[in-house]
Each structure stands twice: as structure tokens, then as C-alpha cells.
Write a structure and sequence with these properties.
Blueprint lengths: L1 H19 L4 H12 L7 E2 L3 E2 L3 E4 L2 E4 L1 E4 L4 E4 L2 E4 L6 E11 L2 E11 L27 H14 L9 H9 L6 E3 L6 E3 L15 E5 L21 E5 H7 L3 E2 L7 E2 L5 E2 L3 E3 L5 H14 L8 E2 L10 E2 L2 H10 L4 H14 L4 H4 L3 H5 L1 H6 L4 H5 L11 H10 L11 H12 L3 H4 L5 H14 L2 E7 L15 E4 L2 E4 L3 E3 L2 E4 L20 E22 L5 E7 L6 E6 L6 E20 L4 E11 L1
Length: about 600
């Protein structure tokens, strides 16, 4: 039986061998060519790539001989070496194989893309300041040169370093009294400039070169030294900590702070809220300062010394996409524009970063479609502000009547809905305010405004459980006047403890304004400073000034404008109370609106 099985197996082997041997050399070559045509060869390239050197069919394997008809791709062993030029190069790669005497060729068409294929789409229309950016650019150099010309040519006023103080006092102002520091978000008195002799509770602010001046322009003779587009208000100590470090993400910091900054001796990672701001300022500097005098560059070397180079580029591009343009940046851009004449294009058009740093953007998975989704097919001027200015101006010669309530409410609502940056553009808001006052006068309203900026004089304090009366209003619990205006509460913990008078047992410490009113319709005040240790702002009412009932509780934030209206004119005692562990709140004005 074993002999029979062996004989059958031998017959099968012979038959199979006979079948394979029945293929002609021509058929084998055709099958090899069929597999050759299936090779994964790119159709568009910018970088070198590897070529297969052999192709197989069944047990047959032959060598592949590659050739190119264009020097844009040359062959070196198994490597296709790509050389880009300013234009797209069409290349034919030929793969040749030979089996016995049968010769076959496979043809692969490849496009070698031009250098820096950053091409703005021709169907996007840029107007006004960026009108020269309309149209397709065949390469990165043309795009960059055009943008560079716009930013340089419009930089008509070169600031002195001394003038930068005044610019930052406006561009980086949080309100009329304080600047907001870039790395900490800390609010510091505008007048507490480094070197002025003034301080804000021991703190001062100075002019931070976001592109550290030691990296290329450590002399005031350079325009870059005083370019406000990259100079920011910064609390002095954190500015010293940053020093001239380059920017990158720090995994093992030697230092950190409560604001989210981390750093080593050479690398600084700012808090998340301003990472995109930093990136866009550095992108501006590269675009603005590219000439015979100074050429600034961003790269990833991590070794910068005193050269006009900074980084890290990959990280900065990442931060740009992770932390989009903010209202603060928009406001700054507008203010600096009024002083210097030029703008930061990466704030106005964040999509330009894609064309400036295309490779880095693509490594993050960002595509051209991603960035262009945020750009309309025709970039039109936003008419929201201009239309509101025009509609307010139409009130100038108008006599206000009781029938104008809906019109005035609508204009006020449109103004309130604007961003902070756009509100600064409404140059005739005072006209709207005066017309609202005319309307309220018809209703018998009477505004009584208390100017608290000099209350009642710098340094005057009222300790806990004592009372000061200013213009009929009683102030309790260490309220005092400073150069910044009135502060409700003090920094020495002299606060009133809970008592039965206010009938709220779960409060900790609190400070209070308490006064008697007759036919009060509305009260208005602005919070210029909000110190730590505050829980809530509360409104309480009383018929006798002895026992109070809680009317309402509000969450508040620094910079809030507080408007509180009564459904019917209120008469009696009113208390405004801030509660918390160390409650303090600054105000500059206080308006009570009565009906006669």
C-alpha cells in the first residue's frame, strides 16, 4: 500500500512540473511585468524615495533596471533622488526587466512639485491693507516677498524705545488704570512703570521683548528694538525669569509658577493663554525683519547664542493652531497699527501661517482646506461697526420722545454685543449715551454719580465697625481710597464678621456699602479691580436699616460693569455686600438713578 501512495505522489509532481514548464518565456515575462506595474510608486514627490530592485512571479525573480528622462529625479542604486525647482517637473521613470531574452518596460509618470508649494488660492479676494495678497502665488518666495513688502512699506512711524511706554499703556491696558502682563495675566497700575519710582504694592511692569533683543538686535538703533508688535507689558520678575530663553515645551522644568509658566536656564514655556500670542508675534518678526540689515529666522536647532535666530519653530506652529487669535490680540493689533502704520498679518489672517510654514503645519495634520474653511470665498469688510456708527450718528439732530425706547434699546443692545476691540471703534458712543439720558429725563429719571477716584483722599482708611459718610452714602469695613480709586475692603483682614443684621449665617468675612434711597430705579458701577478671596456680590434690602433680606446674589469678575435695575422704584435701605475670606473690590464710579 505504501508503494502505491509513493507512486501516486511522484505522478502528481511530474504533472505539476509539466504544467509550469508549459509556460513560455514570453508568458513568464508578461506575468513579471504585470507585477511590476503594481509597484507603489508615488505620483507627486518633494523628497527622495526608495525604489524596488527586484520583481517576482511564482518562482521567477528578475532584477529591475531604473532610468529617468529628467534630472529632477536621478537614480542612485535603489534610491530616487529628487531635485525641486521653481516649477513643477514632469518625470518619466522607466523600469526595465529581462527574462531570458524577453525584455519588458513599465512606465511611471511622476510630478516633482516646485520648491515651497505655498500657493494662495486665486478665488480668495483680500481687500484693503492686504489687497496685494489677492491672486495665486507660484511659490513661497513670491508669497513671502509680497507680505514682507506690505508690512515694511506701511511701517511709516518708527517708535523710540521711550515712546513704547505710552503705546503699551494703551495696547496692553486692561482698563483705564491697569495694564495686563503677558506671562502672568497680572494687573499692575499703568503708572508703575519700571524706573518711574512708582509701584503697585511693590510690583512694577516693564517692556518685554518677546523676540529677545539679544537674538539679533541688541541696540536701540535697530527698528526691531522698539517695534511694539512684539513688545509686551510684563511684570518685572517673570520678565527676568524668561530672560532671553527660546520658546518650547518644557518637560522637566527647573522652575515654574502659579500662572502656568515653566522654564529652565535656556527654555521658557509660557502659560497656555498666551502661547498663540507668542507664536504670532515671532512670525510677524520673521516677516517684518527680512532685509539687508537684519534677517530673523525661526528654526528647531535649540542652539541660538546671539544669532538672529529663535525657536522652536515646530512648537510655535503648534501653539498657533492650539491657541487661536484672541480679542486681546485684535485690540493690540489695532492700537499698534495707529502708532506704527503696519499690522501683524498673522492676527488678521491666521491662515497665512499655513503658507509661511506649510511643512510644519502638515506634520500637525493641518491641510490647506482646514485653514481656508475659516476664510470666505470673498473676504468682505465687516460692516457691523460702521453700520452701528452710522445709525448712532442719525440720532444727532433727533429730538428724543417717549416713542424712541425701542430704537435706543436696539442700539444699546447692538453695542453691548460687540467685542471689546470693536467697542473701541464706536467713536460716537457718547452721543448714544446722551440720547438715552434724554429719554430717561422724559421718564423723570435723575442720575446721581459719585466719583470715587479721589475717595475721600489717598490713604484714608475706615477700620471695621466704623462708618464714613460721603455724599449721604455710608461705607463700612476698612474701605479706603488709593491712587487707583475707591476700594471696598482692605488688605489687612479688618472685615466685619457675620451678624444678625444681614440675616445670612453662612457668610465668612464681608465688606459693605449701605445707604438709604427714595424711588431708586437702577444702580450702576464698574469693577476696576477684583482681589482674591471673594465669593459673591450680594444685594440686600431693609425697611428700617436694622434687619435685611437678601434680594439677589451675583457672580462677578474683574472688569465687569454691574447694572442692577428694580422692577418698580425702590425706597428704603440698600446694602451691597462682597463676601469671602478677604473680600476687596475696586470701583471708580457709582451711579444711582432715581425717578422724580
Amino acid at each position: 500500500m505504501k508503494k502505491i501512495f509513493t507512486l501516486i505522489s511522484l505522478v502528481l509532481i511530474i504533472l505539476l512540473s509539466s504544467c509550469n514548464n508549459s509556460l513560455t518565456d514570453e508568458q513568464i515575462a508578461d506575468n513579471l511585468l504585470n507585477n511590476l506595474n503594481k509597484l507603489d510608486i508615488p505620483t507627486e514627490v518633494t523628497d527622495d524615495f526608495i525604489l524596488e530592485t527586484k520583481v517576482s512571479y511564482d518562482e521567477y525573480t528578475v532584477d529591475i533596471i531604473w532610468s529617468s528622462n529628467n534630472e529632477a529625479i536621478t537614480i542612485n542604486n535603489n534610491k530616487a533622488i529628487v531635485t525641486q525647482t521653481d516649477t513643477t517637473q514632469e518625470v518619466i521613470l522607466t523600469a526595465n526587466i529581462t527574462y531570458n531574452e524577453e525584455n519588458r518596460n513599465a512606465i511611471f509618470n511622476i510630478a516633482v512639485l516646485p520648491l515651497n508649494t505655498s500657493i494662495l488660492p486665486s478665488d480668495v479676494t483680500y481687500t484693503g491693507y492686504y489687497s496685494d495678497m489677492t491672486g495665486s502665488f507660484n511659490n513661497y518666495d513670491d508669497f513671502f516677498t509680497t507680505l514682507n513688502s506690505i508690512v515694511v512699506d506701511t511701517h511709516t512711524n518708527h517708535l523710540t524705545y521711550k515712546e513704547v511706554w505710552d503705546v503699551l499703556s494703551e495696547s496692553d491696558a486692561y482698563d483705564e488704570n491697569n495694564v495686563e502682563c503677558i506671562y502672568t495675566g497680572m494687573l499692575i497700575d499703568i503708572n508703575a512703570r519700571d524706573g518711574s519710582g512708582n509701584t503697585d504694592n511693590g510690583r512694577v511692569w516693564n517692556r518685554e521683548h518677546v523676540w529677545a533683543k539679544s537674538h539679533g538686535f541688541d541696540d536701540e538703533s535697530y527698528t526691531a528694538y522698539s517695534d511694539a508688535h512684539h513688545l509686551r507689558a510684563s511684570e518685572k520678575n517673570i520678565n527676568s525669569s524668561r530672560n532671553n530663553s527660546y520658546f518650547d515645551e518644557v518637560t522637566n522644568p527647573t522652575n515654574s509658577d502659579e500662572y502656568g509658566n515653566k522654564w529652565t536656564g535656556s527654555v521658557f514655556e509660557p502659560r497656555d493663554e498666551v502661547k498663540g500670542d507668542v507664536a504670532r508675534m515671532l512670525f510677524y518678526m520673521v516677516t517684518r525683519y527680512h532685509d539687508n540689515t537684519l534677517t530673523l529666522t525661526l528654526d528647531n536647532t535649540g542652539s541660538y547664542g546671539s544669532s538672529p535666530t529663535l525657536g522652536k519653530l515646530d512648537t510655535l506652529v503648534k501653539w498657533h493652531y492650539e491657541d487661536p487669535v484672541s480679542e486681546t490680540e485684535i485690540k493690540r493689533n489695532e492700537v499698534v497699527y495707529t502708532y506704527q502704520g503696519n499690522r501683524n498679518p498673522y492676527i488678521d489672517h491666521p491662515e497665512f501661517v499655513y503658507y509661511l510654514y506649510e511643512d510644519e503645519s502638515k506634520e500637525l495634520g493641518v491641510t490647506e482646506n482646514n485653514v481656508l474653511e475659516k476664510v470666505s470665498q470673498e473676504v468682505e469688510e465687516d460692516t457691523t461697526v460702521s453700520e452701528l456708527i452710522s445709525d448712532i450718528e442719525a440720532l444727532r439732530d433727533k429730538t428724543i420722545t417717549l416713542e424712541d425706547k425701542e430704537l435706543l434699546d436696539s442700539l444699546k443692545s447692538r453695542y453691548d454685543a460687540l467685542t471689546y476691540a470693536d467697542k473701541t471703534k464706536i467713536t460716537n458712543y457718547d452721543l448714544l449715551s446722551s440720547k438715552i439720558e434724554e429719554y430717561e429725563a422724559l421718564l423723570g429719571y435723575n442720575n446721581v454719580e459719585y466719583d470715587l477716584t479721589t475717595f475721600p483722599g489717598n490713604g484714608t482708611s475706615y477700620l471695621k465697625n466704623t462708618t464714613a459718610t460721603i455724599n449721604g452714602i455710608s461705607f463700612y469695613a476698612s474701605n479706603h481710597g488709593t491712587g487707583n480709586g475707591f476700594i471696598l475692603g482692605s488688605n489687612n483682614n479688618n472685615y466685619i464678621k457675620p451678624d444678625d443684621k444681614y440675616n445670612v449665617s453662612n457668610w465668612s468675612n464681608f465688606s459693605v456699602l449701605e445707604f438709604n434711597v427714595n424711588n431708586l430705579v437702577r444702580l450702576t458701577f464698574d469693577i476696576t479691580v477684583l482681589y482674591k478671596g471673594i465669593d459673591d456680590l450680594n444685594f440686600l434690602v431693609s425697611s428700617d436699616g436694622i434687619n435685611y433680606t437678601l434680594l439677589d446674589t451675583l457672580e462677578i469678575a474683574e472688569g465687569d460693569n454691574v447694572f442692577y435695575s428694580f422692577t418698580t422704584p425702590y425706597s428704603g435701605y440698600l446694602a451691597i455686600v462682597i463676601t469671602g475670606s478677604t473680600p476687596r473690590m475696586g470701583m471708580n464710579n457709582f451711579i444711582l438713578t432715581y425717578v422724580d
